[in-house]
Amino acid sequence: MGVLRKTKSVEIVLHEFAKDSSAISVITLVERLGSKMNKTTVYRILNKLEDDGVLHSFLGKNGHKWYAKCNGCSATVHQDIHPHFQCISCGKVDCLDINVVIPEIKNRKVEVSQILLQGKCEECYIK
Ligand SMILES: [Zn+2]
Ligand SMILES: [Zn+2]
Asked: What is the domain extent for residue 86?
């Protein structure tokens, strides 16, 4: 995959992620951007941004797909092996900056790991 062309649509999608560091579900993105571009374009841009190491995706509760900004990834290597946290009260999802050690499994090679922790986020926990 080549370097992403910074079209207007790409900028609009990236802008959604510039606001804060939490993840955004595809459903929400399509909803928010619905007036500016069609669903297919949103999907295509998200795929491309993931290929380019700008965003990473993971599955949240109910199998919904979420996207979040990458930190230090490139088109060749994604380093987003961190767990994600989904708040069961407010629904917010974000990346956790912690390291989970995946155990060595005999005769198997782990290539992808997805860990989704669910509970109460900082805001909901204090209330
Ligand atoms: Zn919350
Ligand atoms: Zn993440």
From this structure: 8-126
Instruction: Pick the ligand that lies closest to the CA of residue 86.
Output: 1
pTM value is 0.84
> What span, in angstroms and rounded, lies between the C-alpha atoms of 90 and 78?
28
Do residues 48 and 64 make contact, with C-beta atoms less than 8 angstroms apart?
A: no
Residues 31-43: tens digit of each pLDDT: 999 999 999 999 9
Ligand that lies nearest to the alpha carbon of residue 98, given by its number in the listed order: 2
How close is the Cα of 96 to the center of ligand 2, in Å?
7
Residues with CB under 5 A from ligand 2 (ion): 68, 80, 95
Answer yes or no: is 32 within a domain.
Answer: yes
CATH, residue 103: 1.10.10.10
Domain tally for the chain?
1
What single-letter DSSP state applies at residue 11? Answer: H
Tokens of 53: 């190491």
Answer yes or no: is 1 within a domain: no
